[in-house]
Design brief:
The protein is of the alpha+beta class and 491 residues long. It has 16 helices and 20 strands. 34% of the residues lie in helices and 26% in strands. Strand 16 and strand 17 form a beta hairpin.
């Protein structure tokens, strides 16, 4: 059941009924012949002066002054001023226009002029109401008190906040630039299943759904990794996908249960090659979209141009804490972490302990772009072990701006026997209560048994990359419709 109309909405509804009684029904109009956008009228004034232009958009301001009315008309491109004078449109039409409300969608046609104050305007000869806004625009929209309303009613947020529109235009350009960068280097874009019989490719808790015709549970994918690797087994040597992942996890400033990822695989290269690709790609995107690789993120000046810093994970911990976690037992690692006041779960292994210490003690210090190298094998079930230290894998994560992880990459594990044992280890963790541990994927093992060439893989969190390049500190600011809890009823 729809919510009741407020007093202001009742007034607008009455206006609509009055218009319909006069034979004017804005909702019956199917099209409007617009010749120019607002921005084009203003930018091309020298060529358009004295000519007729037709614009359409939303009324966002209106000023009635004696024998005339000034109004601000906004469309996607920007704003243009309308001037309606008694002498041109006549008393009846001027009175009709003056009944229009802020938020109404209007088409207007007239001569392009400049006012005495020098503002480019359209001297309106004819206008048409294209849609009636039955809800009044919010008087006060900015500020933290309205954050949840902004996300829940993003359509109004976009309507009244130009900077929000700027963020999402930049997001679109960032993704386009990413595709262009990869396409130019011979990568092929593909699509892989969103619903999977076995959730795999990342350690994360999945969402579960049910397929009635097949009478089987399916999982919204947590990552496309295992399917993209199957394509590499099949002979596609450079593939990528830009699409959604779903993880049934908490919501905070860096996590939304539905998010967008770039994931790619490149045969016959290792994680060093992927590092070069990553830093080159992100710098190229920044240069194309922002015109510079020097940005500011949350008050920190940051240079995105290559080369980025390379720092082994254990060395990063040693630099920040003075403690060396390499070649120590699980019990010793636990005592060392506790001495740093890092809280741990009782059943964690060495790798989980080390990663938690890294996240708490090192991540916040990573302001300039940094590749953290060589993660524990315990927390990297799909990456290849280092030849000189099987306790670690050829894996990196890219951090920037302090705790903002924007990329994760491996030299991919292609040994089916090793992968089989790691799946079993994950299954044991899952049986012990770890809901994020991976399940055993028989078909993926079968694919590896046919032979996966040496390859490097990369995942880039597009939402976080957009956060970085638009200088916002919440993922909800860069997702058009972030996940929210149920809307609370107003008192």
């Amino acid at each position: 059941m729809s919510e009741p109309f407020s007093d202001l909405m009742q007034q607008r509804l009455q206006k609509l009924q009055h218009l319909r009684a006069q034979g004017i029904d804005p909702f019956s109009i199917t099209r409007y012949d617009r010749t120019h956008t607002a921005r084009e009228v203003v930018a091309q004034f020298d060529n358009l002066a004295g000519q007729t232009a037709a614009v359409a958009g939303r009324l966002m301001a209106k000023r009635m002054m004696g024998k005339g009315t000034f109004a601000d008309l906004h469309d996607e491109s920007g704003k243009v001023q309308l001037l309606l004078s008694l002498d041109v449109v006549g008393a009846e039409r001027l009175a009709l226009f003056n009944t229009f409300d802020l938020g109404d969608i209007v088409g207007a046609r007239g001569k392009v002029i400049k006012t005495r104050r020098g503002e480019v305007s359209i001297e309106v000869a004819d206008f048409q109401l294209l849609a009636k806004s039955l809800r009044p625009l919010p008087e006060k929209w900015h500020g933290l008190t309205n954050v949840e309303t902004r996300y829940r009613q993003r359509y109004v947020d976009l309507m009244v906040n130009p900077d929000v529109r700027r963020i999402f235009r930049l997001r679109s350009r960032i993704i386009s630039a990413m595709r262009r960068f990869l396409d130019e280097r011979g990568f092929m874009e593909v699509e892989t299943p969103m619903m999977q019989p076995i959730p795999g490719g990342a350690t994360a808790r999945p969402f579960i759904t049910h397929h009635n015709a097949l009478n089987m549970d399916l999982f919204l994918r947590v990552a496309p990794e295992l399917y993209l690797k199957r394509l590499t087994v099949g002979g596609f040597e450079k593939v990528y996908e830009i699409n959604r992942n779903f993880r049934n996890e908490g919501i905070d400033t860096k996590h939304n249960p539905e998010f967008t990822m770039l994931e790619l695989y490149w045969a016959y290269v290792d994680y060093h090659d992927i590092m070069h690709l990553t830093e080159e790609m992100i710098a190229a995107i920044a240069q194309e979209v922002l015109g510079t690789t020097r940005i500011t993120y949350q008050g920190h000046p940051i240079e995105l141009a290559p080369p980025w810093r390379r720092l082994p994970l254990l060395e990063g911990i040693r630099q920040q804490t003075g403690l060396d976690f390499s070649e120590v037992s699980v019990d010793k690692a636990r005592k060392m972490a506790e001495s740093l006041n890092v809280a741990l779960h009782p059943g964690w292994n060495w790798g989980q302990i080390v990663q938690e210490v890294f996240e708490k003690k090192v991540e916040p210090t990573l302001i300039q772009p940094t590749f953290i190298l060589d993660f524990p094998t315990d927390v990297s079930p799909l990456a290849k072990r280092k030849a000189d230290n099987p306790q670690l894998v050829y894996r990196f994560e890219a951090f920037v701006g302090g705790e903002l992880e924007i990329a994760n990459a491996f030299s991919e594990l292609n040994d089916p026997l090793d992968q089989e044992e790691r799946f079993r280890a994950q299954a044991r963790q899952r049986a012990a209560g770890d809901e994020e541990a991976m399940e055993y994927d028989t078909d993926f093992i079968r694919a590896l048994q046919y032979g996966l060439p040496p390859c490097g893989g990369l995942g880039v969190g597009i939402d976080r990359l957009v956060m970085l390049l638009t200088d916002v500190n919440s993922i909800r600011e860069v997702i058009l419709f972030p996940q929210l809890g149920p809307e609370r009823e107003k008192d």
